[in-house]
Design brief:
- The chain is α/β, with parallel strands linked by helices and 321 residues long.
- It contains ten helices and 13 strands.
- The chain has helices at residues 41-51, 68-75, 119-125, 144-153, 169-172, 185-196, 204-213, 259-273, 279-297, 310-320, and strands spanning 5-8, 12-19, 35-39, 56-62, 83-85, 92-99, 105-110, 134-137, 157-160, 180-184, 220-224, 230-235, 241-246.
- A nine-stranded mixed β-sheet has the order 5-4-1-8-9-10-11-12-13, with helices on both faces. A four-stranded mixed β-sheet has the order 3-2-6-7.
- Helix 6 (185-196) runs parallel beside helix 7 (204-213), helix 8 packs antiparallel against helix 9 (279-297) and helix 9 (279-297) crosses helix 10.
């Protein structure tokens, strides 16, 4: 039986400003538009999991001023049974600049309800989950490390996307409980430097190996490289480990805001779906599917709205083969 997936994650209102370029210090710049959409790394990853045909439960807290987001996510296939609406705290917000020329973005976060998560609520939710299930976590909620520890102690496997990266993340989260770590190159370097107090200059796969060497119980680590694709290293639970290199899809980039979250959701959905396959085959398939999904997402505007459907991804994969 396929394990359940619980995403204990953030929910934001994304307020997006398309701009000619990312604003510089001291500069005032007119945006060419304005959009408000549902977002947040947690919510985006739940939407991606659902669109990849996983049954995902999103647990968390939504502000009184964003109650519509709960229905919005349900309409996209996310099970919101474990999500509450606050009566007196406003929702988290992301203020996003998107460069019209390059698709690059710059984001300022206001935590709102994302700073009101507590372990006591998580303990209640986790009563319905256990060994064989997965928990997905990011670094946009309060007490994320405590929630990770509770989930791991109940036997759940942990997929951690430590974004945004913060200076003391290695002290706040029990990385020895993480099964699969998904990071970009900047996050991987920051993480290694926090662990060792040393600056690191290393090729991508070498960097992955250096980080994983610090966490011998970690199953695998995925390093997303934007326009250069993805590299990863996984252990099969025995003595073997294997490196993976998946090149990027060459596409015209419109907005990169939701690409990383799309990758996370599609990766885990594919990995869990193929649980009866050879371990390394599962990893390769999941990396390829997630890579294609994120390449479709960057060609669209928005974060949650940019996530493709599974049949779009599979059709694109057939075309590439």
């Amino acid at each position: 039986m396929v394990g359940k997936i619980l995403n204990y994650g953030s929910v934001n209102l994304d307020q997006t400003f398309p701009v000619p370029h990312i604003v510089q210090p001291g500069e005032t710049l007119s945006a060419t538009g304005f959009f408000e959409r549902a977002g947040g790394k947690g919510a985006n990853q739940s939407a991606a999991l659902a669109r990849a045909k996983a049954h995902v439960y999103h647990a968390g807290l939504i502000g009184y001023d964003a109650a519509w987001v709960k229905n919005y996510m349900e309409e996209r296939g996310v099970d919101m049974t474990y999500t509450k609406i606050s009566e007196n705290v406003g929702n988290g917000r992301a203020f996003i600049q998107v460069c019209s020329e390059t698709g690059e973005n710059c984001i300022v976060l206001f935590p709102g309800t994302n700073a009101k998560y507590v372990p006591e609520d998580a303990a209640e939710v986790l009563k319905d989950f256990g060994k064989g299930d997965w928990v997905v976590l990011q670094n946009e909620i309060s007490h994320g490390g405590d929630i990770m520890r509770l989930a791991a102690d109940k036997g759940l496997s942990v997929l951690f996307n430590p974004a945004p990266m913060t200076p003391n993340i290695i002290k706040e989260f029990p990385f020895d409980k993480v099964s699969i770590l998904i990071v970009n190159e900047t996050e991987a370097k920051s993480l290694y430097e926090q662990i060792t107090d040393e600056k690191v200059e290393a090729e991508e796969l070498e960097l992955v190996g250096k980080v994983m060497a610090k966490f011998p119980t970690m199953q695998g680590m995925v390093l997303t490289l934007g326009g250069k694709g993805v590299v990863a290293k996984f252990r099969d639970g025995k003595v073997k480990d294997r490196d993976f290199i998946v090149p990027a899809q060459k596409v015209k980039v419109k907005d990169t805001t939701g690409a990383g979250d799309t990758f996370v959701g599609f990766f885990l959905a594919a990995f869990v779906r193929a649980q009866n396959e050879d371990y390394f085959t599962r990893v390769q398939h999941a990396l390829e599917e997630a890579n294609i999904a994120s390449s479709i997402a960057v060609q669209r505007e928005g974060s949650m709205d940019s996530v493709p459907l599974l049949n779009e991804v599979q059709e694109r994969k057939k075309q590439l083969n």
